[in-house]
Design brief:
There is one protein chain. By secondary structure, the protein is α/β, with parallel strands linked by helices. It folds into two domains: 20-217, 2-enoyl-CoA Hydratase, Chain A, domain 1 (Alpha-Beta Complex), CATH 3.90.226; 221-267. Helix content is 47%, strand content 13%. The chain has eleven helices and nine strands. The protein has helices at 43-56, 80-88, 92-111, 127-134, 162-170, 172-181, 187-193, 205-217, 221-233, 239-253, 257-267; strands at residues 20-24, 27-32, 64-69, 116-119, 123-125, 137-140, 145-147, 185-186, 198-199. The strands form two sheets. A six-stranded mixed beta sheet has the order 1-2-3-4-6-9, with helices on both faces. A three-stranded mixed beta sheet has the order 5-7-8. Helix 1 links the parallel strand 2 (27-32) and strand 3.
Length: 277
Amino acid sequence: MTSANPVTLPLSGFKPQHFQLAVAGKVATVTLNRPEKKNPLTFESYRELTDFFLAAQKEEEVKAIVVTGAGGNFSSGGDVFEIIGPLVAMDTKDLLKFTRMTGELVKTMRACPQPVIAAIDGICAGAGAIVAMASDLRFGTAETKIAFLFNRVGLAGCDMGACAMLPRIIGQGRAAELLYTGRVLKGEEAERWGFLNRLIARDSVLAEAQALAGELADGPTFANAMTKRMLEMEWAMSVESAIEAEAVAQALCMQTEDFARAYHAFAEKRKPVFEGN
């Protein structure tokens, strides 16, 4: 599942040191690339991933993002010796700095306008499961093993937004089970529960994720960004407020050239070509 040779994106010259970054057309692929340790996260990779998704918020060329892992695994979560060990020695002030920093990664993933698709094979645990959860869509394999392991190391399941987001994906009771027990959710069960959108053969899961990302990137990307924004905002709205907010959002989309392009293409019995404006 390793991506091709890294290509620097036009994300203000962004050049990652702690993950692999590749671009094909309008799709960026982020590959967690420490396969010998199942792609754990470190202090540095947390910060760099956050910086990447922050930069993506101002990016105009890349329209969709795929996140994956090298070597047959997605991510084993925070590195035991490079993160968990040092955390034991920190005081409350520094621990809070760390937990806020990890939360910023989820915030920036949710705030970037591009749809984010996780291509998940093998181990997807701890903070790795959070990165998958924070993605907009998740493709997995029968060999995928998802685990929110925080209680296994004496911590609460409320990490990086898990208690807010996971119930909205799979339901309150199922989320409670995973967060209380830390048990492994395997690929087929994860699809039945709705955590995985699709179950795909492991030799094609990344390609399938990139193919869908390409389809989304060729679509009405202003409208896609609006959909993502409204999905986020409406969590905290009443139905009445949501309907009004969607009325405003849809009126804005109706002012785009892509909306007019779609109409003219329909009238002329051809497929529309969207340009994202």
